[in-house]
Amino acid sequence: MSSSNCLDHGTLSLLLGFVHAKTAMNIFRNSYLLLRYHQVKITRLGNMNSYYPVSIIATRSIADDVSKKLVFISKSTNIFENLALEDWFYKNFDFENQSLLFMWVNTPCVVIGRHQNPWLEVNLKNLSQNSVLLSRRNSGGGTVYHDQGNLNCSFFTSRDRYNRKYNLETICGSIRSHWNLDLTISPREDILLNSYKVSGTASKLGHRNAYHHCTLLVDVDPSLLHQMLNVHELGIQSNSTPSVRSPTLNLKACCPEISVDEVIHILGCYYIKNSPLCFQGFDFVTPSEENFPGLNLIKQSFSTWQWIYGKTPSFSLCCPIGDQSSEIKIQVLNGKIERVHFQDVTIGKQDALRLNTLLVNQKLDSELHGVISNSSVFGTMGEDRFSKLNEILLTLCLTSV
Q: What is the average pLDDT across 21-27?
């Protein structure tokens, strides 16, 4: 970083005047982080493109008081990059004296909550056939489908100033003010339009920082949404957090002229209390290692099989064999088959040994899918009798990253 873009501590002290020393250090830290990506190409609303030195952003942050609000909009549509950038802000920013609205849009993907089971929440077969990505976020809550008709909003504050209801009211107020849509907040803190869900919500609260993020269905493909989240019963028993299924609606169904780009603009202006005619205060950022040091490691961790599938709470799978009193129970831990138990199943010792050898300590992934597909084990045990088990196992192994 060139010396011309640096703010030394003495300069900060002069700028801040009577501001408390702790506050000065916090703002200095945030300014330094912002200056790390000092010549980012910022795309302004209204199709204006220019190189905008981020040192100006940092100076704005220094000059204003604790109510300073920033609006960052991601230029990426990759779910792993955007989740990584969200996590980067959470881990690296000090929000004691400012807050941030981070808005982002993804190409088709499904995002499950931190404590959820993807085999219960997502139709893995449809996911694979449509080349839709699956990801696991760091916050709790339920499963959501994203595409470029869905806007994601992440509200960052200090832990002390965390206020989920205020954030939801900000979204409702901005939409109501410009499009006159009567959005309401449900007791579960979903946003509703005509009793249909248009926004789901989740949060992460740390010792120092907190964020609340939510989706907003503007013009999502309803067919793909239902295909991805329409899950067939597989006989899974789990203590994972289940999604609460609700009928959904796009804002565009009630307001044909609305678009994601317009919502970004109106919501951003409403958040920082600017006139919709004012384009200042919006900063489009590119999630990259150069701009945000350490981002690649975070992105990599979000995109691994171990995080997406292996982080799943332990679960079991019960598959009837022949009559209803006979079943095979498979126990899964960290996405791996831990144990195969035969309950009232008439099976030879050699067949039981071969099935255990085939399955135990194996990850439910594409490699095991290939092994099962090419194995003769099920044929020797009586293919008709064990065909349901074979089918379920192949479905469970449709995991990809």
A: 40
